[in-house]
Fold this protein.
Amino acid sequence: MRIAVCDDNAADREKFAKTLKECAPTIDAEQFADGASFLEAAKKMPPFDAVFLDIYMPGTNGVDIAKTLKEISPETGLVFVTTSREHAVEAFSLYAMHYLIKPVTAQGIQQALSRLTELRHSHRDSITLTVGRERHIVFLDQICILESDNHTVNVSLSDGRRLKVRMPFGELERMMNKKFLRINRGIMVNMDYIMRMGADTCVMQNGIRLPITIRQSAAIRASYDDYVFDRLAGRKGF
């Protein structure tokens, strides 16, 4: 398990790493004194399973570091460590899995590790996409739209980001699961993000309107209706 501890206070950082080692003897935490060095390490493979991140640090604070982390490595579990609950609401809006108040106790660390174990056992399909020289691990449930653009594919994510991936559309299409529906040549959508399916237009929750292949309109709408029905019925896999 790859764990990071990011705190500008050397004494706090060393004490935390020592207590973590006592709670989980097999874990050797990687320590970072600032967000820049941590984020650089987060780009390397394998990704961090979790980071214990101090909110109050000089320069870029922990919340801003966490926002960047979610772009680089969205699968990394996030645990905020701080002296105040001031950022608690914002922390959980960033899908922080836990929140520890200093001085951190062994019990608090153990609770965070237990939460991490629970999350690791819950399955979320993901793929690795190469954008330029950077690799991005993206959960399939984050992807809203795939659009072919010459020899690249524009991947629209639920947080508003767009990744331009240089690979054949068909190859990326084969990586998707049954939540994705091809509605036109070179256009595929995640049905969880559809707001309305019309006769010739698919309207996404973010307001984007996409054209539907007229000749296959009935079949496309039927596939979407079946998907919605299976979800509402609580069928396995939905």
